[in-house]
Design goal:
Helix content is 42%, strand content 18%. By secondary structure, it is of the alpha/beta class. The protein folds into 3 domains: 110 residues, Cobalt-precorrin-4 Transmethylase, domain 1; 105 residues, 2-Layer Sandwich (Methyltransferase, Cobalt-precorrin-4 Transmethylase, Domain 2), CATH 3.30.950; 47 residues. The model has no long low-confidence stretch (mean pLDDT 94). The structure holds S-adenosylmethionine. S-adenosylmethionine binds next to α5, β7 and β10.
Length: 277
């Protein structure tokens, strides 16, 4: 099926709503492997029966990861190819599979990815926000206090941010983001590839006015702009911390600049201007 004679774990991306986005390669792989490891076999049965695929399925989900990974490794050892799929999109992207991939790498088996749909990228490219650099964050912690801490840590990040969110939490998340990030452009992409696909573009504050949002959604948020004074202040605080740890101010500014994608030299100049050295 694939070049080489080693048993292979295929990481197969599946549609995120619209079944016609399935690729020929995805179908070929799912038809020809010995076993398909699914996040939820009942859910994947819809996809498999739609395409008349009768390959044996087993479960691989967050609650049986270790046990199931063992079973998959022993199949690979016997020379059987296995495909891993999740309910939608790429396995391992806010979905199970990380543990398995690491064990398969450790055991020296082959891993092949089969490309396909991904909600984060669909939303990003249509958002109208910069796409040259971005951070995929996935889901924030379900507890607001923890989510707030996560947002605080992202506050100075200069690139576009991508979040997954559940409909019952989206209003809370938008108001938390407004509180932590302030005025920023954002785009809420809903029901991607499906009949009711839609995009709400505006500022975070404007998106807070939306109510009763249903379905699956991705939230894209503008990164921190370098010019914002408060954010520069945050970065200078980080420079200061490194200086207190013993780094020279110039090196500390360079390091913080590299981390956040801003000019280290400019940070250093601002640091001097504040008379911190
Ligand atoms: N593995 C998937 C991927 O590659 O996109 C993501 C799985 S994650 C458990 C599910 C989340 O992805 C949803 O809560 C939503 O945030 C996002 N998502 C998945 N399908 C979507 C769709 N059709 N439209 C918008 N968001 C979607």
């Amino acid at each position: 099926m694939e070049p080489g004679n080693k048993a292979t774990l295929f990481l197969v991306a599946t549609p995120i709503g619209n079944l016609s986005e399935v690729s020929q390669r995805c179908l070929d792989v799912l038809r020809n492997v010995s076993v398909i490891a699914c996040e939820d076999t009942r859910n994947s049965a819809k996809l498999l029966s739609h395409f008349d695929i009768h390959t044996r399925t087993i479960t691989y989900h967050n609650f049986n990861e270790r046990q199931s990974a063992k079973g998959i490794l022993s199949l690979l050892e016997k020379g059987e190819d296995v495909a891993l799929i999740s309910d939608a999109g790429y396995p391992l992207i806010s979905d199970p599979g990380y543990l398995l991939v690491n064990e398969v790498i450790e055991q020296g088996h082959k891993i092949v990815t089969v490309s396909g749909p991904n909600a984060a990228l669909n939303a990003l490219v249509a958002s109208g926000l910069p796409t040259n650099h971005y951070l995929f964050y996935g889901f924030l912690n379900a507890r607001s206090s923890q989510a707030k801490k996560e947002l605080e840590a992202l506050k100075s990040f200069p690139y576009t941010l991508i979040f997954y969110e559940a409909p019952h939490r989206i209003e809370k998340t938008l108001s938390l983001m407004t509180e932590v990030f302030g005025e920023r452009k954002a785009c809420l992409a809903r029901e991607l590839t499906k009949l009711h696909e839609e995009y709400h573009r505006g500022t975070l504050k404007e998106l807070c006015l939306l109510h009763d949002l249903k379905g699956e959604m991705v939230l894209i948020v503008e990164g921190c702009s370098e010019e914002k004074e408060t954010d520069t202040a945050d970065l200078l605080k980080q420079v200061d911390l490194l200086v207190k740890e013993g780094l020279r101010a110039k090196d500390a500014a360079k390091k913080v600049g590299e981390t956040y994608g801003v000019s280290g030299n400019r940070l250093y100049q601002n640091y001097l201007k504040e008379g911190r050295e």
